[in-house]
Amino acid sequence: MIAKLTAIPGSIVAARGFRASGVFCDIKRLGTGKGSAKGKKRDLALIVSEVPATVAGMFTTNQACAAPVKVCVERVEKGNAQALVANSGNANACTGRQGLKDAGEMARFTEQALTLPPGSVLVGSTGRIGVTMPMDNIRAGIIEAAVGLGSTPDHAAQAAEAIMTSDTKAKQVAVEFKLGGKSVRVGGICKGAGMIQPGMSATGKRPAANPLHATMLCFITTDARIEAKVLQAALREAVANSFNRITVDSDMSTNDTVLVLANGLAGNPKSGGFGLFQAALSHVCLELAKMIVRDGEGVSRIVTVRVNGAKSFSDADAAARAVANSPLVKTSWHGGDPNWGRIIAAVGYSPATVVEEKVDIGYSAPGSRDILWSLKRGQPTKATFKALCAAVAPKEFDLHVNLNLGRSSAVIYAADLTEEYVDFNKGDVTDPTSLGG
Amino acid sequence: MIAKLTAIPGSIVAARGFRASGVFCDIKRLGTGKGSAKGKKRDLALIVSEVPATVAGMFTTNQACAAPVKVCVERVEKGNAQALVANSGNANACTGRQGLKDAGEMARFTEQALTLPPGSVLVGSTGRIGVTMPMDNIRAGIIEAAVGLGSTPDHAAQAAEAIMTSDTKAKQVAVEFKLGGKSVRVGGICKGAGMIQPGMSATGKRPAANPLHATMLCFITTDARIEAKVLQAALREAVANSFNRITVDSDMSTNDTVLVLANGLAGNPKSGGFGLFQAALSHVCLELAKMIVRDGEGVSRIVTVRVNGAKSFSDADAAARAVANSPLVKTSWHGGDPNWGRIIAAVGYSPATVVEEKVDIGYSAPGSRDILWSLKRGQPTKATFKALCAAVAPKEFDLHVNLNLGRSSAVIYAADLTEEYVDFNKGDVTDPTSLGG
Description:
The structure is a homodimer.
Chain A: E1 6-7, E2 18-23, E3 44-60, H1 67-77, E4 80-90, H2 96-114, E5 121-128, H3 135-147, H4 153-162, E6 171-179, E7 182-191, E8 200-201, E9 217-222, H5 228-240, E10 257-262, H6 274-294, E11 302-310, H7 313-325, H8 327-335, H9 340-349, E12 360-364, E13 372-376, E14 379-380, H10 385-391, E15 396-402, E16 408-415, H11 419-426
Parallel strand pairs in A: 4-5, 9-10, 11-15
Antiparallel strand pairs in A: 1-6, 2-3, 3-4, 3-8, 3-10, 6-7, 7-9, 11-16, 12-13, 12-15, 13-14
Helix pairs in contact in A: 1-2, 2-3, 5-6, 7-9
């Protein structure tokens, strides 16, 4: 945490002028009758600013892109909005024209329920792909959520719960800092546990030279006064160094979405001091991104892969992703096995330029520069197997790979691969409601 | 099987003039004393032609490339050889100068033991990475193997066992066909179960515009009379459509090697008729490649991913590999879940150009054109969940993805991801000999 940022409670209602709620409206159609075995986890969230806000967004670059993403890309482009509605239990992806109609209807119905102008509500969805939305349930949920809006931390927690799917924990954070003499707040909630290797851009289109790689949803609110263009630039930077740097299982979702609403109620000066805002937004995004990895499906160990000395950023990124997504590396992490052979094999087959005789591989505690090297210049060091096992035994550690070919570096926040991940995701076809997106 | 090819026994000794053997020389240094709990699986194989042969090879494009691969690339370039020695239990990879020296010594020692000219022996290794070779054991093994050479199917089976690592079955095949009035035989053995997504080229260098992705080892013998250049072209074609089209776990090894020795003893005409030789070699490679996928670590289901209608081969290949390597798709296969949402998500995040509204996804029995479509033009069909579950219930099935954008296609032979794979590869750090490459 940067010294000038203070952690505060309330996540998305921490900033002035925001209210939130979360309700259960049975989007998975589990049945709500008495005796239903399924719990009634909330599944529809509403977040509203009391005044119009500027908005920025980042969206999945998956070419199979969900209807709510398409709706948001178009609406965010205008630069302002005032509320957002999001559901879990149904991704509204691969649902064709009906899906687009339903996503639009979710927004319009929310506008009516809150008496907001047309075009001022954004939409997010996560859950099973290819099932059309249960719009009667959605409409009932929106009305209930609108009635239930409030600005206590409990209201924010309801919304954080409502967007969860396979998440085991709600994910929330908020910070406060001074900007031009005014107190400014930034807070967010997010969800994501599987189908996690986001690669988002502002338009949902891929940057030509930068192929990117959950459903993850993240909604951020701030009372900063900031122009939409500046906000978008800040969000792009924050996402590039947080959500776009995590992987649980290498699968990029059809629905990944990050949205920020900035309503200006902090009253900070219109220009200047945005370095600190950037730091706050980046901090919020990174904390939320790390929560996703820690709560990844079946995850038992968290590994931060730090590649240094690459010829270019894209080389560093490619090498880090190859290691972070290698099933053999990930299973060795699960086993507590310091198997550098699998690591150098993954680095070697990555698209990055690598010279085997120059590669260093080592371990440290999270964030520490005190590295135990297992490989130096392509050769095993004298570190004992016992010492290396001890280095990879903690629940979280850093893996350092130095290619010693240049000055570029990249970090990927990764996780191990466990029997629990496989068991969870193979599902149970005798109970289709158990099957994930 | 092509009608003109006849399956015959004997694999690598089926062709005239070849002898083989396999011995146990304790390359993993498990100890051989009485009471040792570990079995004495053979771990060193020898294959020898009684006359000089032309040779061709294909090698891993991993930039961390094992010493025996470096030795073979150099030797195969000359175009002829007479024998090959291969071991399991140690990959001789990331072993630096000592590794190169040891790989060279394996070849030279075999030349001496068999009184063959310098440069006439090729080397292959598979096993744990980063451990120097136990050369005393290797030398003792080579002498014992040289003494034990023979040309019965049992001798071939010994060699096939000796190259196994995590394989549960020896992998062998041989065929016979007529070429220019002469009977010609082609046979091979191979190994591989994990670290399997070969991407081999003739030089071990990557084709610039074609990023490729086990250790797998494959040794083929034939009595065909064929020039080295023609043999190399035939092998490149055969490998491109077999070993380079399989994936178990998306990890490319440091050691992947395919070698063919052709000793000419069939006496076929020097030119002409090589279409049939190509068919035979391609058949042998494809049968062996499929055996690797079927025996993949923890594998319970085999899926042939057939992408059609792509704009280019590289698009078709990229889409097929994205599906074949997606942890979420692979776990759904394990669970018998016809989850097309995960499949279209993988296709959508692949580098291939995809238009969601055009994508068809369906299933058939292996090789059948009778396809049950789950998705047509991006929309779910009326196929029932029960019918789709039945389509993905068999141990082997074909998955058809039609992008409907062009005329290019690609096939990938893939497998599911199981708890057993994870359990096997996390290993047991209290027993380092259990830890794989």
